[in-house]
Write a structure and sequence with these properties.
The structure is a homodimer of 235-residue chains. Chain A has helices at residues 5-18, 31-37, 42-54, 76-80, 83-89, 108-114, 161-168, 185-190; strands at 27-28, 58-61, 65-68, 94-105, 121-131, 134-144, 173-182, 198-208, 211-221, 227-232. By secondary structure, chain A is α+β, with helices and mostly antiparallel strands. Chain A has a six-stranded antiparallel β-sheet with strand order 4-5-6-9-8-7. Chain A has a three-stranded antiparallel β-sheet with strand order 1-3-2, covered by helices on one side. Chains A, B: GO terms for molecular function: DNA binding; DNA-binding transcription factor activity.
Chain lengths: 235, 235
DNA sequence: GAGTGGTCTAGACCACCCC
DNA sequence: GGGTGGTCTAGACCACTCG
C-alpha cells in the first residue's frame, strides 16, 4: 500500500513552503502543471492544492492561480491574538513602548521553552502595548538568536515583534496556554494597575521548520481584555 | 448560475441533522444512494459527505458507512472545555455537587444572553466540579425552559448539564469568551480559596437550530486550570 | 484566446466490514 | 459476496483573469 499520490504532491508543496524556498505570495504550480509533473490526473493534483488551501497554506483565485498565503494569516489562533488587529478593529489607536531589548543567555526555563542548551544566546524583548493611551498588554518575549540574528536591530515601535518574525521566516506551528494570574509588582507597575488585579496571561511558543523560534508571555488586565471565539456547526 | 449540486446535497444532509430528525449515530445514506437520489455522480455525492465530515458533523468508516457524529464531539472548542473529559484524561476522578437547581424568571442580563423577553421562564443550575476531592470549577448555568422543559428533573450528579443538553437536542453553535476575574465572596467560598485569587472565567452560550439554549459561566482558580491549544500549519 | 481554478461525470480498482 | 468508503482517471463545460 503505497502512499496516496495526492499526499506525495501535498508534501512536496508543503516542504517548499516550510523550508522557506517559496515565501509569501509565491505563485505555486497550477493544477495542470502538477498533474504533468507528477504524472497524475488533474483531479489528483487538485486535491493536494485544495487541502493545503483549506489548511490555510495557500490562497487560490479563479483565473489567476494558487499562491502561498500570508504567514500572518496562517492560523486562526494566531490571528485571534494579534493585538494590533484587535485594537484597530475596535477603531482605536495602537501604540507600543519598548521597555527592554537585549541579548541574554538562556536560563533553565527559557532553555526548555525554546528547546536549547543552557546558556544559549537568546534575545529578550519587553514591550507595553497601548490602546489609545491605556496600557493593555505587557509582552515579554524570548527569541532564539541563532534563528533570527537580526531581531535585536529592529525598531519595535514601528513593527511588532510578532509581525517582524512572521515577515522574516515561515512560522509553521504555535502552541498557546491561557491562564489567570494575579498581577505581580512588575505587571502592576507597567500596566498602571492597583492590586489586587486578575490578569489573563497567554503563553505562546511558535515554531518554524527549524525549531522553536519564540517563547512569549502576554499579560492583560482581566477587565480590559477578553478573548472570544465562535464555533459553528456545518455551514 | 445555479447552486452547485454538492451544496444542495450538503444542505439537505445538514438540515436533517440540525432539525433533529437524524440524531447522534444515525446512519446517513451512502455515497451511491445519494448519487442515485439526487441524480449526480458518486464523486459529487461524496463531496457533500466529505465536507460535512471535515466540519465534524459526520463520522465515516470504511466498509461500514457514514454516521451523524456525537454532538459532544462536534466542535473542538466545545471539546476543549469539557471538564469531565479533561479530568479523566489526567487520570483523576471527576465528581459533581449540586448547589442549586430551580426555576427562575429571567432578569435583564439573562434575557439578553438567551434572547428572551424579560421575565421568561428559565432554569438555573449551580454546580461545583471536583477533581478527586479538590473543587476545580464553579458552573452557573441558565437554560431556556421552553426549549428544554425537562432540564429541571435531571440528576446532575450522574450526568453533567452539558452532557444532558448535548444528548437531548442538537447543539449547532457555541460562543465562548474567556477573561480573568478576581474571585468574589461566593466563588471563594464554593471553591475553598483564600483571597486574593485570580480566576479564569469562561462564558459560553450554546445554540440549537431553535435559538439560544444555554448561557453558562464557568469559573476556575487560575493556578489550577489552563486552557491549551495547538495550531498546526499543514499536515 | 490562453491559462486558471470550480464543478461534474462515468467509469475503475482497492481495502475494509459484515453477513 | 455485496456494500462501503478511499483513491484515481481522462475526459468535459464553465467563469474568471490577463494580455
Amino acid at each position: 500500500m503505497p502512499a496516496p499520490k495526492y499526499l506525495t504532491i501535498k508534501q512536496y508543496l508543503f516542504n517548499e513552503i516550510a523550508s522557506g524556498r517559496w515565501t509569501e505570495h509565491h505563485k505555486v504550480p497550477s493544477e495542470n502543471q502538477l498533474a504533468t509533473q507528477f504524472s497524475v490526473s488533474r483531479m489528483t493534483a487538485r486535491r493536494a492544492l485544495q487541502e493545503l488551501t483549506e489548511e490555510g497554506a495557500l490562497v487560490r483565485t479563479k483565473g489567476l492561480g494558487s499562491f502561498v498565503a500570508s504567514f500572518k494569516n496562517q492560523s486562526s489562533l494566531l490571528k485571534v491574538k494579534n493585538i494590533v488587529d484587535e485594537i484597530e478593529l475596535r477603531g482605536m489607536k495602537h501604540s507600543c513602548e519598548l521597555v527592554t531589548l537585549e541579548k541574554r543567555s538562556s536560563n533553565p526555563e527559557v532553555s526548555v521553552a525554546l528547546s536549547l542548551p543552557l546558556e544559549s544566546p537568546v534575545f529578550f524583548a519587553a514591550l507595553i502595548h497601548y490602546q489609545d493611551r491605556q496600557p493593555i498588554q505587557l509582552e515579554a518575549r524570548y527569541v532564539n538568536a541563532r534563528l533570527v540574528p537580526n531581531f535585536i536591530e529592529q525598531d519595535f515601535t514601528k513593527i511588532t515583534p510578532h509581525e517582524y518574525l512572521a515577515k522574516t521566516l515561515p512560522l509553521t506551528e504555535a502552541e498557546h496556554v491561557v491562564e489567570a494570574v494575579l498581577a505581580d509588582r512588575q505587571v502592576l507597575h507597567y500596566l498602571k494597575l492597583n492590586p489586587p488585579q486578575a490578569c489573563l496571561q497567554l503563553t505562546r511558543r511558535s515554531w518554524s521548520s527549524l525549531g522553536v523560534v519564540s517563547f512569549t508571555q502576554l499579560t492583560h488586565p482581566g477587565q480590559h481584555y477578553r478573548m472570544g471565539s465562535q464555533a459553528r456547526f456545518g455551514d
